[in-house]
Amino acid sequence: MNQTKGKNNRKVIKAISPHKTKRSGTRKTAVLTFSVPPEMGKMIDDLAKQENRTRSELIREAIRRYIAEEKWAQIYRYAEQKALEKGITEDQIEEIIDAERE
């Protein structure tokens, strides 16, 4: 992963698309480019070093967690909307679940 200084003195983490490359044929991973403030870049590098992981592994884990959190947030928003449509209050939800389990 290449790293250079970009605009506003941010660290730029470069990436390559998952399409064919000259060196390796078809890649199994997508390589992305994004920038972070220098202090965040240092924090990423320090944490990766502490955990004996690569920067990529650390960022992949953070993204996996974010995606999982967002999926649950979508489920909760959907459930909230459906409960509102049916006139169910938050207090009634446990009672409904308990009744269904019996």
Automatic annotation (TrEMBL):
It comes from the Bacteria. Residues 1-28 are annotated as: Disordered. Residues 31-70 form the Ribbon-helix-helix protein CopG domain. This is Ribbon-helix-helix protein, CopG family. Signal peptide: none annotated. CDD domains: RHH_NikR_HicB-like. Residues 7-26 have a biased composition (Basic residues). One of its GO terms (biological process) is regulation of DNA-templated transcription. SUPFAM superfamilies: Ribbon-helix-helix (SSF47598). It holds the Pfam family RHH_1.
